[in-house]
Every structure is written in C-alpha cells, then in structure tokens.
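G., the chain you wanted modeled:
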Amino acid sequence: MSPKTSPISRACRAWQSSRCALSAYCGTLVLFSAICAQAQSFTSTTDTTAWNAARWNNTTDAAPYTSTFTANNAATFTSGTYSFAGMGASTNVGNITVASGVTVNFASISSTFATGGNVRTIDVGSGGLFDFQGQSISIAAGTGFIKNGSGVLALSGNTFAGGFTLNAGTVILRGVNAMGSGGTLTLNGGTVAGSATRDLTGKYTSGITVGGNVQFGEMSTNVASANSTANLTFNNNMALGAATRTLTLGNGGNVAFGGVISNTSGGITFAATAGGTGRFDVTNTANIFTGDINITGGEVRFTANGSLGNANNTIIVDGGRLAALNGATYAIATTHSIQVGDNAGTSISTRVLVFSLTMASLPTRAA
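Predicted structure as tokens:
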C-alpha cells in the first residue's frame, strides 16, 4: 500500500485545528464534530493476524502498522483485500468504513467482536465486502448495527438486542442471529439475503419497521455469498409506515411474512427481479394495512381473505400471480375489487375464489 492519509482524517484534523474559529457555527457542525470525535485506525493488507495483534496504525494510513488496535477507534479500510484471523481477544470497535471495491474477510474466528454496548455503523462502499464469516459478536446491552453503503455485509451475528438497521446495500445472513435477536429490525432499503435458508421466527420482538423499498433474497451470480434458493421466514409484526412499500423477490426461495402487517397509509407492491422465481407467502390472517395491493412480478400467496388487510383494499394483478398458500382455497370478500393487467406473467390461481367480486381490466397497453 502506498502511504496516504484518508480524506476523513485530513478533514478531522482540519476541523480540530479550526474548531475555535468555527465555534460560531457549532449548531450546524454538530454532526461533523461527532464523526471526527471517533479516532481512526488503519491496518495493512499484508498482515493476516488477529484483530488485536500489532498490525495497526492508529493515526494515519501509512507504515509502520505496528501498534495494537486502540479500543473504540473507528476502523477504516481504504484499498485492497484485508484478512483477519479472528479477533484474538474481545475488542471494542467503533464504526467501520470499507471503501468501494475493498474486501475485508475473517479467514478464521476467535474471541469476540464488541462495540462497548453501542450501536455501530458499518459502511461498505460499492463493490465492497465486509465478511465476519462466523465471528462471534458481543451481546452486551445496547449492542446493535446500522448498515450503510451499497456493498455487502455478511455475518452470523449473535443475540445482541440493540437493533439492526439496513439502509442500503446487502446483508447476507450467515445465521439466524445475523441481525440480532430481541430488538427492532429496521429495513429502510437494500437487500436481505441468506447464505442458506434462514428461519427468523420470533427474532425481532420489538417488531419490524419498513421505511423504504426492500429486496428479499439474492442470486449467487450477483453476490457470491448469497444462496439462490434460500428461504427467509419472518413472523414478527411488520409496520410499513405512511408510504407504499415495494417488496421485491430476488431469488428462487420463498419469503414468508407471518406477523401482522400494518401501515398508516400507502399500500404494498410485490415485485420480482429476473431471478425472483420463488414466492412471497403472506400468512397472517389479521393484517390491517390499507391501500392497494399491487402484484407486478413473482407469485404472492395469501392464506385467507384476512391476509389481504383492510376490507376495502384493491388488488391489482399485473405481471405477477395471485395465489393461495399450499393448495388451500379461500374466497376474497366482496368488499375488495380486483384489477387485472396484461403484462406477461399475469395470472390468478383457480384456488382463489373471485367469482363474487367486481373485476376490471387495466387499460390495454399499446403494442
């Protein structure tokens, strides 16, 4: 690696040297000040020892990398491929930044990755990967994570209860506790995928909050650590907020939602990528969300009329398939209406009884 100082380090030092002159603007610089308050550590791509080994420079990204990691420092990975032989000893780590195209991998596991009981942000840039593999994570009270950036975070996790927030990119679930247990799961964007089938039943006792459009499942051709046929099962209550949320199927597995689905307005759009050949299963029979149900791709299977949410929700099938779960038969209440489009893949299972409903065709598209 060529010696260099990260832009963040240079900015922080500039901020620190001029903080008095800028004090008049402190009200607008609080966020930047908070970022700079966490000192940074850098390591070399040539060292493959444990995290707690003497492989760090706790000031700048330049040789010598001969110090042990300073507890609670932020860790920044700037270029190339980094490898760790586990943690070596339980170590409190601050926020983590992985630059675009950079890979950080735990080639083996040992001891515990800890956060000092804080929620830490892991920001992985485009084409980047931070892979904990099976590395244990502390379950100290308050431990949680925020995933930013369009890259990939893979982890087995642990039963930490401080919550998990996915804002962007992909999180690969290497275990059922990858996103913690007992806290809140917040999905504001990005992709949740498994390295194998994951049953997340009962993991998020404080609920699942969906604040944006989310993809479930990924193809291994897109993310190597993803499983193209992995199933994902959620059964905690899911709140969609005040906007129409698009839930996209990204692989050939089944994605099941068993908790009560609610919102304050909007609706749900079910979509699928080219590889999204699996199914969405909506199994709770007392859903209370309002707004249109749009099925634009893939297959969406509902257990009963009560799975469709508010009694007046309109069901729009245009490019996907409306079906019943596991071959069951159910009748949709007459308070619903169904609109059917002409996009390829549009269909309704004969086990969904719609003969008593008002049905309408969407406007025909120009050839």
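The longest strand covers residues 103-108.

Shout if anything looks off.
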